[in-house]
Design brief:
Layout (H helix, E strand, L loop, with lengths): L9 E5 L2 E10 L4 H5 L2 H11 L8 E7 L5 E8 L12 E5 L2 E9 L5 H14 L6 E4 L2 E4 L2 E5 L13 E7 L3
Antiparallel strand pairs: 1-6, 2-4, 2-5, 3-4, 3-8, 3-9, 6-10, 7-8, 9-10
């Protein structure tokens, strides 16, 4: 049964955004291995006196749901002088037009929510910033932003998560 979005996605303009991140190739069953790295990034920032400038996110770069996903976890920063130290790197999220949708509910619902947002965009005849490769779909920028701190709200059914998908120019 298709997921019924309670609210409409929206198109927003985003500016470039610097972040610290770590990359990993995962599967849908090992996504937790990437999620477990978020606290390491906050520790890395704290050790260097660098302030986070936003909520942590997952960036899905290449997606083949049946095989593997090349992803990053990141935390936005403002510090223009920050320099990465392996395995942490400094990256930049590209500016552009994005489809944005904020979901309130358990993270297990995100696959269905994502499908509904992609279907909505198809109905609107929107074109994604993505290309097909032998390894899967390569996205210009596709994000899952975690707006809820699990320490503040342990009930996952109340978590707020924003999906962001960059549109083609």
């Amino acid at each position: 049964m298709p997921y019924d979005l309670p609210d409409q996605p929206e198109i927003v303009l985003r500016t470039t955004e610097r972040y610290v991140g770590v990359a990993r190739t995962i599967t849908m069953d090992t996504f937790h291995e990437l999620a477990d790295r978020v606290s390491e990034l906050f520790d890395w920032l704290g050790e260097r006196g660098i302030a986070a400038a936003g909520a942590p996110f997952f960036r899905l770069n290449v997606i083949d749901m049946a095989r593997e996903l090349r992803c990053e976890t990141g935390v936005p920063i403002v510090d223009a002088a920050a320099v990465g130290a392996a395995p942490v790197f400094i990256g930049v999220l590209p500016a552009g037009r994005y489809v944005r949708y904020t979901h309130v509910g358990h993270v297990d619902e995100l696959v269905e929510v994502t499908a509904a947002v992609l279907d909505w965009a198809d109905e609107q005849r929107l074109v994604w910033d993505k290309s097909a490769t032998p390894d899967g779909d390569r996205w210009g920028c596709r994000l899952i932003v975690n707006l809820t701190d699990p320490d503040d709200e342990p009930d996952m059914s109340k978590w707020r998560t924003t999906l962001l998908f960059r549109l083609a120019d």
